[in-house]
Structure formats: structure tokens, C-alpha cells
Amino acid sequence: MSEFRWDPLKGTWVIIENQRVRHPGEFLIDRQKSSITICPFCPGQEGKTPPEVYALRPGDTAANGPGWQVRVVPNKFPVLRIEGQLNQQSDGLYKSMHGIGAHEVIIETVDHKRSLAQLDIVETTSVLQAYRARLLDLRKDPRFRYLQIFKNHGVEAGAPLPHSHSQLMAIPITPPVTRSELNTCREHFRNSGRCLVCDLLAREIADGQRIVYNDGRFLILAPYASCFPFELRLFPLQHNHDFALQNDSELADCARALQEMLRRLHRLLGDPPYNFILHTAPPVHAQFSKPGYWETLPRDYHWHIELVPRLSQIAGFEWGSGVFINPLAPEDAARYLREIDLSLNI
Ligand SMILES: [Zn+2]
Ligand SMILES: [Zn+2]
Ligand SMILES: [Zn+2]
């Protein structure tokens, strides 16, 4: 079983995978090579994955066979396991707990060759509905402090399987990135009585130079302090802390904006590898909460999607300092992406 370990110097958790002993030589192999010949995500191969936990089956077909449009299965090689207790241990300096969690794969399409950017709005909406359904289900488990949905696209971004999919990890800790955002938003709300993201969006709309897309419902921008070239964030303009509370029509609007984001990047940069991460409110379980801690969450947090194209490696200065050097101003990135005309068929 893998293990969560706490680094007391950095103040962060890591997951140590120790399902089997690895030989150093395994880390030297060409990571571009995939040994998989039959794709387990293709229709007809349902038996090669663990049984599905969610599927959109328009023709009402039987589970774990063909006929699905979107399918969610537990990861066959999960980093975290769903069975067992956390077994938290501490000797004063070092803390650890069992690698308990859920690790699921959202297979976005039956078509082995189509990427998420090539799906239509209805198909993309179905993927977002699968995200919502899994969030609503997994948040019932009180062991999970956070549910992280993310997508790796391309080998360089950590997706060795080409068949388009995203992933969900339910973890027994609040990740530091999330905790920091939650704290910052709560602090701003305490000081001003307003949502930080709503304030930022108002300022960005007034300024305009970093906006890539705004259809009045969803907005895409290149963040003012972008760490990476063409880093993007997608926000609902209507305040909402929790992605899982969005209704079908809001998810369709989100799908339209997500398609704008992916297609513009695809057109400008030629199908770049990327990661995107859904940042949404954590499930609130009464037994973990400090009194009043989550009280203002629905008003102070604002869900969003963060996307980073993987165009360059993170170098020593960035790793060592946590300060990134970005060779492209976000104002220029936004202009390039804004000027893309998606109606042109090139
Ligand atoms: Zn496939
Ligand atoms: Zn807001
Ligand atoms: Zn965020």
C-alpha cells in the first residue's frame, strides 16, 4: 500500500508509492514508449478495466459492455486504494498515514483517436456531467478531505495512454494549493465582505488585456502573474463555490468555454501537451471542521479550471525557489489566443 508522508521542513504531504520494489533501471527507460498494444479504454475492451462506477449509456445497454458514451472506472493501477483505514501515525517529527483514497479514470469518448478538443459541446457537457456525478458520490465518504479532478493530455503532461481521459483522486488531506486558495479567499471575504475571484473578474473585465474569451457566462483569462506561457484560467461569471452544484445548462455553458480554451490552444500551438485541474470547494464533513471554519465558504470561494500547457521543463531555479520565470507576458498570450478565429477551417 502507498503511504502519505509529511515533510516537516517543507510543511507538505507526499505520496510514496510502494506497491512493488522498482529497479533503478526502470527509471531510465524511454518514457515515450508505451508497451500497451490493446487499448483498455476502447469499446469492446470493458473487461480490461475494473467494473464501471458511472457510465452514460444512451441506449440503456448493460453495464461493462459496449454502448456507453462516457465511462468512469477505478484506475487499474491506483496510486491510492479505497479499502482500509487511514491509520495516522506520528512520532513527533514525522507523520504518515495509509494511502487511502479513490483514483478513477473518466473515459471521455469511445473514439480512440479524438481528443477532448475535438469533441462537440454536447459530448463535452456529458464529460462535465460525469465529473459532477462522481464528485457528488465520493463526497459522501467522510475519509476524503478533497476531490481533485484533473486531465493530463499528451505524454509530456503525464498521459501515456492516448485514449482521451481525465482522472479523479479523492484524498484524505487538503492539498496545499487548495488550502492556500481557500485561506486567501476567506481572508479577503473577512476583510471586504466580497468574493476575491468576483473582485478579480470585475477588474480583469474592466482592463481587458488579459481576457481571451468572455461570452457573458464564462470567462477565460491569462492570469496577471502567470507562471507559464499560455497558462489559462476559466471561471463562471456567476458566483458559485462548488462545481458539483452547477445545473445541466450551466455545464453546457462551461463546456462551450472549455472548448474555446482547448481549440484556441490547439490552433495556436499545434495540439500542445497540457494539464488542467478543476479547483472547486472541498466536501465539508462536520467531524473535521473547526467551528466556523467553513462558514463563509459558499460566499468566499469561486470554482474555476486552471490549465497549463507543458511547453517547457521546470528548471533548477523554479524547483529550488518556487519562483517561476515566465518568458511570455500574459497580456501577449491573451492577445495571441484572442485573435485566433475558430470559424476558419485551417
Ligand atoms: Zn482506445
Ligand atoms: Zn465569486
Ligand atoms: Zn485555483
Brief sketch in words of this structure:
This protein is an alpha+beta fold. It is built from 7 helices and 14 strands. Helix 1 (121-138) crosses helix 4.
How are the SSEs ordered, and which strands pair?
Layout: E1 3-7, E2 12-16, E3 54-56, E4 70-74, E5 89-90, E6 95-98, E7 102-107, H1 121-138, E8 146-153, E9 165-171, H2 176-192, H3 196-207, E10 211-214, E11 218-221, E12 232-236, H4 248-269, E13 274-279, H5 297-300, E14 304-309, H6 316-321, H7 330-338
Helix pairs in contact: 1-4
This protein binds zinc ion (3 copies).
One zinc ion binds next to loops.
Number of helices, counting only DSSP H or I runs of 4 residues or more: 7
Shape: globular
The ordered string of helix (H) and strand (E) elements is EEEEEEEHEEHHEEEHEHEHH
Q: Determine the strand fraction and express it as a percent band.
A: 15-25%
For the residues shown, what is the average pLDDT? 91
Low-confidence stretches: none
Question: End-to-end distance, in Å?
Answer: 49 Å
Largest sheet descriptor: 10 strands, antiparallel
Tell me the strand order in the biggest sheet.
3-4-7-9-8-13-14-12-11-10
The portion of residues assigned to helices is 25-40%
Bound molecules: zinc ion
DSSP, total strands: 14
Radius of gyration: 21 Å
Structural class: alpha+beta
Word description of this protein:
It is a single chain. This protein has 346 residues and is α+β, with helices and mostly antiparallel strands. Helices cover 25% and strands 20% of the residues. It has helices at residues 121-138, 176-192, 196-207, 248-269, 297-300, 316-321, 330-338, and strands at 3-7, 12-16, 54-56, 70-74, 89-90, 95-98, 102-107, 146-153, 165-171, 211-214, 218-221, 232-236, 274-279, 304-309. Helix 1 packs across helix 4 (248-269). The N and C termini lie far apart (49 Å). One zinc ion binds next to helix 3.
